Amino acid sequence: MTDTVTSTPTPAPTPPPTKSRPGGSRLAGVLRLREFPVALALIVLVLVTYAANPLFLSPQGTKDLLLNATIMIILGVGQALVIITRNVDLSVGSILGLVAFGTGSLFANVPGIPIIAVFAIGLAFGAILGAINGLLVTLARVPALVITLGTLYIYRGLNNAWAGGTQYFADDRPDAFGALSVDTILGFPLITLLAVLVVVVVAIVMAGTRSGRDLYAIGSDPDAAKLFGIPVGRRVFIAFAVNGVLAGLAGVLYASRFNSVGATTGTGLELDVVAAAVVGGVAIFGGSGSVVGAAIGALLLTTITSALTALRVDKFWQQAIVGVLILAAIIIDRVASIRTARRLRLSEARDV
To answer: Where do the TM regions start and end (predicted)?
Structure first.
């Protein structure tokens, strides 16, 4: 009698779990960044313009491109701080004009004044003007759009009364001060490197400190921010004051960059600054965006002007394209917000 041996079938080996590729997830994360479409548009614009006019990226052309964007980058960073808190500052052009004329006045009337002292006075002057905006917004509880529209005209009127028909020219300032926008390091103008330093420092503060993160919480939901113990009024005041400091810095650099400053310096600049921040991905409704995106938006807008000039496109189309970009940025942001809210509702429904 033979024994029959029954063999149990060997289970098929289970395939190892598939691991998501880190490179793919990183790439997806980059593509989802709010700044990515703006940076891509900037690169495409530069390449197309260079193909049509190779002089566009000549050493002098690149230097001019960076210099043209420097003032706007600094102003855009300050404006981003305010917009993130669900506010806006329309007076930055007037602040810049006052500080720029004050800078020219210091050099003309105080011979031998150190350049570092001029910078300190300009920053302090800008901080005071920005703090006035912050106090009015936080204490009066009136929309910042209304408050800063009023201070726009007040500051501009002060500049007109102070300057009158007086203008200060490049000959009235020290050569070392004018050299800030002429001298370069590795091809980058000194004032542009200063603007990059501003972007890096403010970006680190916004991402790595509680006060920076509080600004996003305030912009997302001011009432909820109060419930969590965030000092909303103080944070908004600081955002306006810092914006004033940066506008003061931009005013001093404006006096170094351009040949003359007077009563009309900075007129109309405020709308370009708001446009730069919005195009750079800073949500006009507050709560999202970054100062890096605002800086890229500022560079994109100034590059559009330079590129279309190099391509001999009429100035009307330059303004029209900027308007289209603003509308596109707002619509894209709104659509993204709706999709995010819908995904949250769906995930909550699945959890229930």
So the answer is: 36-53, 65-84, 90-108, 115-136, 185-207, 236-255, 316-336
**324 vs 289: CA distance, rounded Å:** 19
User: For 104, phi and psi rounded to 5 degrees?
Assistant: -60, -40
State the pTM of this model: 0.87
Q: Are 76 and 249 in contact (CB under 8 A)?
A: no
Residue at 90 is within a domain: yes
Amino acid at 149: L
What tokens were used for 182? 């002429």
Q: What's the whole-number mean pLDDT along residues 298-318?
A: 84
Whether residue 162 is contained in a domain is answered as yes
Q: State how far Cα 58 lies from the chain centre.
A: 26
Domain that holds residue 123: 36-342
Q: Are strands 260-261 and 168-169 parallel, antiparallel or unpaired?
A: antiparallel
For residue 18, being part of any structural domain is answered with no
Query: Is position 15 within any domain?
Result: no
Which ranges constitute the DSSP H helices of the chain?
A: 22-32, 36-52, 59-84, 92-109, 115-140, 144-163, 175-178, 190-208, 210-220, 222-227, 232-257, 269-279, 291-310, 315-351
